[in-house]
Design brief:
Helix content of chain B: 25-40%
Distance between the termini of chain B: 45 Å
Strand order of the largest sheet of chain B: 6-7-8-3-9-10-11
CATH class of the largest domain in chain B: Alpha Beta
Number of domains of chain A: 2
Shape of chain A: elongated
Largest interface: A-B, 16 and 23 residues
CATH topology of the largest domain in chain B: Rossmann fold
Largest sheet of chain B: 7 strands, mixed
CATH class of the largest domain in chain A: Mainly Alpha
Bound molecules: adenosine-5'-triphosphate, magnesium ion
Number of helices of chain B: 8
Number of strands of chain B: 11
Order of helices and strands of chain A: HHHHHHHHHHHH
CATH architecture of the largest domain in chain B: 3-Layer(aba) Sandwich
Number of strands of chain A: 0
Order of helices and strands of chain B: EEEHEEEHHHEHEHEEHEH
CATH topology of the largest domain in chain A: MetI-like fold
Strand content of chain B: 15-25%
CATH architecture of the largest domain in chain A: Orthogonal Bundle
Helix content of chain A: over 70%
Structural class of chain B: alpha/beta
Largest sheet of chain A: none
Oligomer: heterodimer
Structural class of chain A: mainly alpha
Strand content of chain A: under 5%
């Protein structure tokens, strides 16, 4: 309820701020036509909420058109970004969770791998970009690699932490029942550590979604990040705002999906 | 192999590194034995090392020195032959009551199909009086009910030895009583060898054949082995009517209240390999005056 009121207030403020207050310069009609409404009618360069709404409606009606490399529908661009995030993210899941189990279950591996993780973890994922571009020589794959590298760490750390801090008495139950290591990992450690692991996965998807926009601005070609940059070059602030909005909504949805999974595996003590 | 020493704890010690750099000896040179089919009970103050002894017997913990021999074989690690009922029930919270017991059953009999496991599990859930709560999760159970699931889980794998760490201490008196009855009935019927830790003198007197009195730590020792003089067919209700009841009870309480603190200093010649066996009320004359002093 309060959210809705706040939203209406925000829209109203935005509308008032962009309604047009600038000085109207006197000029010949031909020149005025060249300058556009910004200069001639005192209209703000910032689009108002109704401009954005109208444009958004256009995009929603036609999300998948493709008029060549510089003019693709918002849906297509989003699709590229989501696909990249998913591939990089799933690769990271496939690597981080087994590795996290190994680290969490074996103190030796923990000690051996810890220095590498400590050094690699704080590197900004975008710093890998030139190296990735040089070695992989494909912009799309490089973006996927960057997604992979940025989502791996939170999952790896949370998995190994979750696995290492499984309650000792539960492990003891499995030990007294002579449950083998593999079965123990699946029947005791996995369910016990699942909430922590999924929390790591939720952090990772958030980071991946943040990074994909920046990565696509760098590599160009396709994707929502490229769309933002391209529309900025076209000086279409309306489209930039729409893209920002879409990025936020998709990010929220991704987070919600993971949050739901986390709730599913959380057990009351 | 003698049936006399079905469980034989031989000269075990447990030390932990102390804060100052040295070592704390929880106990050392501890000997203990229990014949097949008997019920042994360790009683002692909190922190003397009872859980540690039990964990070593279970194979969950290794002694710093010494060995444990069960059925003629030195134990190595844990085994399905030795079921543990934990002090903190230790149920898996993401599994139901049925799931927790079934986990144990299907760990012991890997080949059993679902229906067979369920039927077997149901028998033990019924046995501990949890019929109707099969699909509840541990978080929905009371403390007593959780502990009963733990008991059902341990019994369900029909172990050679049952190891219990204060299994009833969290229960209300009524439930505790009926579970004691149940445990005693099962142990007598199946000839179950059982090793239990308790704080409760009456519980020890009702259930145990042998009661091991442990002194306070650090450096705890088994001071005496009390052989229960009460008849094998004793009933919980009229335990206190037995002529030996007060002699036995006073002997144990007196040990816990006073002698457990001073035993080591007042008995410098205590031989841990030949711990005195006492039968208060039957042949131990020293108990008679104690009985007279009884509070
Ligand atoms: N990992 C450890 N490191 C150092 N000391 C320990 C460790 N585990 C146990 N101890 C010490 O060993 C002693 C015996 O512990 P234990 O749990 O066996 O006691 P307990 O007799 O079972 O007590 P309670 O009746 O309260 O359950 C305690 O004094 C405890 O402080
Ligand atoms: Mg204990």
């Amino acid at each position: 309820m309060v959210s809705i009121l706040l939203f209406c207030g925000f829209i109203a403020a935005w509308h008032l701020a962009t309604r047009g207050s600038g000085e109207v310069a006197k000029m010949s009609p031909e020149y005025a036509a060249l300058m556009g409404a910004t200069a001639t009618q005192g209209k703000s360069a910032m689009p108002g909420p109704f401009d954005v709404g109208a444009k958004l409606w256009e995009h929603i009606q036609r999300p998948f058109y493709d008029n060549g490399p510089n003019d693709k529908g918002l849906g297509i661009q989003l699709g590229y970004s989501i696909a990249r995030v998913m591939i990089g993210y799933l690769l990271a899941v496939a690597v981080a969770i087994p590795l996290g189990f190994l680290i969490g279950m074996s103190p030796l591996m923990n000690k051996a791998l810890d220095p590498f993780i400590q050094v690699l973890k704080p590197i900004s994922p975008l710093a890998w970009m030139p190296l990735a571009l040089y070695t992989i020589k494909d912009s799309s794959l490089s973006a996927i690699f960057v997604i992979f590298i940025c989502s791996v760490w939170p999952m790896l750390l949370n998995t190994s932490f979750g696995v290492a801090s499984v309650r000792k008495e539960w492990i003891n139950v499995a030990r007294t029942l002579e449950v083998g290591t593999v079965r123990r990992a699946f029947t005791v450690i996995l369910p016990a550590a699942a909430p922590t692991i999924l929390t790591g996965m939720r952090i990772s998807i958030g980071i991946a979604w943040l990074v994909i926009v920046a990565a696509e601005m760098l590599v160009g070609g396709t994707g929502i990040g490229y769309f933002v940059w391209n529309e900025w070059n076209n000086l279409s602030i309306t489209n930039v705002i729409i893209a920002i909005l879409t990025i936020g909504i998709v990010g929220m949805l991704l987070d919600q999906v993971l949050a739901r999974f986390t709730r599913m595996v959380t057990f009351p003590e | 192999m003698t049936n006399d020493k079905f469980i034989s704890v031989e000269a075990i010690a447990k030390r932990y590194p102390a804060a100052g750099g040295g070592q704390t000896t929880i106990f050392e040179n501890l000997w203990l034995s229990l014949p097949r089919g008997e019920f042994g009970c360790v009683i002692g103050h909190s922190g003397c090392g009872k859980t540690t002894v039990l964990n070593i017997l279970a194979g969950l913990d290794q002694p710093t020195e010494g060995a444990v021999i069960v059925d003629g074989q030195a134990i190595e690690g844990t085994s399905l032959d030795r079921a543990v009922i934990f002090q903190s029930h230790a149920l898996l919270p993401w599994r139901t009551v049925m799931g927790n017991v079934a986990y144990a059953v299907s760990s012991k009999w890997r080949g059993w199909d679902k229906a067979k496991v369920r039927a077997h599990v149901q028998r033990f859930i019924d046995l501990v009086g949890l019929t109707g709560s099969e699909n509840k999760r541990p978080s929905e159970l009371s403390g007593g009910m959780k502990q009963r699931v733990g008991i059902a889980r341990a019994l369900s794998i029909t172990p050679k030895i049952m190891l219990m760490d204060e299994p009833f201490s969290a229960l209300d008196a009524l439930t505790r009583g009926s579970l004691q009855d149940e445990v005693r009935r099962i142990c007598l019927e199946t000839g179950q060898t059982t090793f239990m830790i308790t704080h409760d003198v009456d519980e020890a007197m009702y259930l145990a054949d042998k009661i091991y009195l442990m002194t306070n730590g650090p450096g705890a020792v088994i001071a005496e082995i009390v052989e229960n003089p009460l008849p094998k067919d004793r009933a919980r209700i009229d335990l206190h009517r037995h002529p030996y009841y007060y002699g036995l009870r006073n002997h144990i309480v007196d040990f816990l209240v006073t002698r457990s603190k001073t035993f080591t200093s007042s008995n410098p010649n205590h031989d841990p390999l030949h711990v005195p066996i006492v039968r208060p009320g039957i042949d131990d004359a020293s108990v008679v005056p104690l009985q007279a002093n009884a509070r």
